[in-house]
Write a structure and sequence with these properties.
heterodimer, A: 196 residues, B: mainly alpha, 3 helices
Chain lengths: 196, 102
């Protein structure tokens, strides 16, 4: 059975079903991270003392990761725009750069985590580190998930371009929306955890 | 964003994406610079969150096409916000609790 409205616009919503679905998912993600940010505020307001992020965290590395994620959002836009203009070759280049940026982000995060473990800074050390590892760990899992989807669209999933290019372009746009949300969450995590 | 695009639309979108990219880099610079100014805590928090909100709005508005999205998407996000905002305010309600312990 064919899934309806994957390309055609649904008359009642004015959008294809994939777009509606990804936005519903993103709304649930906002609630997920929102609840964790609320937990952070509650823990911080309730604490007698709260360490400055720089006590434990590496600001230059986090700044680098911010630039990497922002750059990957632009290349994601360029990957989608390339498909809309019919250039599959350019799509693959920009999508590869996006995936590579995700990889760089994770490698930097690996070095950050390793340094903390090396110094004995664990989630059980104090409340600040507990919420730091929870928030950045969950965000990191989202980066991994986004990279997996992007890698699939770059590789085996791209076979759809030959048989149904509009459907494939919509899939890339939806993957992009998720990737931008990952970027958006980091934009708030960076100052909240590292700089305040 | 609508589901049909012509090439001129896409070129405009890409140009906007580069402008947003530049703005995000500059604002990231401001965020880090503000940290090294060692401002009072309240001012530092306000400034950092203000810059993050502007950056987040740029990402949501232009990278995620929210500036030109269909109304149903806005309603879905408004519903999420209707739950999200009270969630963020819960700690504030706790801090404002007037019941004192004797």
């Amino acid at each position: 059975m064919e899934i309806p409205y994957t390309v055609a616009v649904r008359p009642d919503t004015g959008l294809n079903n994939g777009k509606i679905a990804i936005w519903l998912f993103l709304a649930s993600e906002v609630m997920l991270f929102g609840s964790l940010f609320a937990s952070y505020i509650m823990l911080r307001v309730g604490a007698e003392t709260w360490p400055a992020g720089a006590t434990y965290l590496n600001i230059p590395l986090a700044t680098l990761n911010t630039v990497v994620l922002i750059s990957s959002s632009v290349t994601m836009v360029l990957a989608w725009a390339s498909l809309v203009k019919g250039s599959f070759g350019r799509f693959r280049v920009f999508m590869a750069i996006t995936i590579l940026c995700g990889l760089v982000f994770l490698v930097v995060k690996y070095f950050e985590y390793s340094a903390k473990f090396h110094h004995g800074y664990l989630p059980s050390t104090n409340t600040f580190l507990a919420i730091y590892f929870t928030l950045t760990g969950l965000h990191g899992l989202h980066v991994v998930g986004g990279m997996a989807v992007n890698a699939w669209l770059w590789g085996p999933g791209s076979a759809m371009w030959k048989v149904d290019p509009l459907h494939f372009t919509n899939r890339v746009e939806n993957a992009g929306l998720f990737w931008h949300l990952v970027d958006l969450v980091w934009i708030f995590l960076f100052p909240v955890l590292y700089l305040l | 964003m609508g589901d049909t695009h012509d090439h001129a639309d896409i070129d405009r979108h890409v140009r906007a994406a580069f402008l947003v990219f530049g703005s995000l880099l500059v604002l990231t610079g401001f965020t880090v610079a503000a940290y090294f100014l060692h401002l009072p805590t309240r001012l530092a928090i306000t400034l950092a969150l203000l810059i993050a909100t502007v950056k987040g709005s740029l990402v949501a508005g232009w990278f995620m096409h929210l500036v030109s999205e269909k109304r149903i998407i806005y309603w879905m996000l408004a519903l999420a916000a209707a739950f999200f905002v009270p969630l963020l305010l819960i700690p504030t309600f706790g801090a404002l609790d007037a019941v004192s312990v004797r």
